């Protein structure tokens, strides 16, 4: 009787400990949520592609304040683009360095259409990281990080990003890795590869995107007055 009681108590204790210990995926999701709850933060995004790639993205620097402005500066080919978001309003720089409302570009084609899609589909790191974690098969502890492979559909989703539902993706695969400190996301990385067909063009895509979070709680955003006026 006593032996059976001890076995039962041990089973209850083990179940309680397991319930209290979140899974790696839950840890990442909670860490991303905690980051999103901070008053502000900054980040830097870099994208690595093969040496022979036709399109080589430059770095992106961003700042965000909770329930306030988001400011992003990114390099595209030989050009630098800045845009500001708040709610459903957005403003973006033009080739002359001035600001215009994003709605003014809605009828654009070519690079302009790509830019509009990029901005309208933009997600801040806290939201993007949570989404990517949800696209993984399983996450496990990997040294000082939490890592796992993407599902095929998850890899396709990230490869279609900015291209819309008309893009056809084959041979899609990928992986993601997250770093968490004191319960808050500090960095994440995702790698995707596959063949993307869009507007009659086929491209082999192989890229690794790294996002580093910094200045949590101490970031100060200065939005140009011209940009604010375009968003009013």
Secondary structure: number of strands: 11
Output the strand order for the largest sheet: 6-5-4-3-2-1-11-10-9-8-7
Number of domains: 1
For the termini, the CA-CA separation is 75 Å
- Average predicted local confidence, pLDDT: 88
Q: Give me the CATH fold name.
A: outer membrane lipoprotein receptor (LolB), chain A
Number of helices: 6
Structural class by SSE content: alpha+beta
Q: Please write the CATH class name.
A: Mainly Beta
Topology:
Layout: H1 2-20, H2 24-36, E1 40-48, E2 60-65, E3 70-76, E4 79-86, E5 89-93, E6 99-101, H3 111-120, H4 125-134, E7 140-142, E8 145-149, H5 152-160, E9 168-181, E10 184-198, E11 201-214, H6 225-231
Antiparallel strand pairs: 1-2, 1-11, 2-3, 3-4, 4-5, 5-6, 7-8, 8-9, 9-10, 10-11
Helix pairs in contact: 2-4
């Amino acid at each position: 009787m006593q032996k059976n009681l001890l076995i039962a108590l041990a089973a209850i204790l083990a179940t309680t400990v397991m319930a209290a210990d979140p899974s790696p995926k839950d840890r990442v999701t909670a860490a991303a949520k905690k980051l999103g709850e901070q008053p502000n933060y900054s980040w830097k995004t870099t994208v690595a592609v093969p040496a022979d790639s036709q399109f080589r993205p430059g770095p992106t620097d961003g700042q965000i304040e909770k329930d306030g402005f988001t400011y992003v500066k990114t390099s595209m080919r030989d050009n630098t683009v800045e845009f500001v978001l708040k709610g459903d309003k957005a403003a973006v720089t033009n080739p002359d360095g001035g600001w215009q409302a994003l709605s003014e570009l809605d009828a654009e084609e070519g690079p302009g259409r790509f830019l509009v899609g990029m901005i309208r589909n933009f997600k801040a790191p806290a939201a993007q990281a949570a989404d990517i974690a949800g696209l993984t098969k399983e996450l496990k502890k990997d040294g000082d990080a939490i890592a796992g492979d993407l599902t095929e559909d998850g890899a396709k989703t990230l490869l279609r990003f900015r291209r819309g539902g008309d893009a056809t993706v084959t041979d899609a695969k990928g992986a993601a890795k997250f770093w968490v400190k004191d319960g808050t996301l500090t960095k994440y990385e995702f790698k995707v590869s596959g063949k993307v067909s869009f507007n009659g063009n086929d491209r082999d895509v192989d890229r690794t995107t790294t996002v580093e979070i910094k200045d949590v709680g101490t970031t100060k955003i200065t939005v140009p007055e011209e940009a604010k006026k375009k968003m009013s």
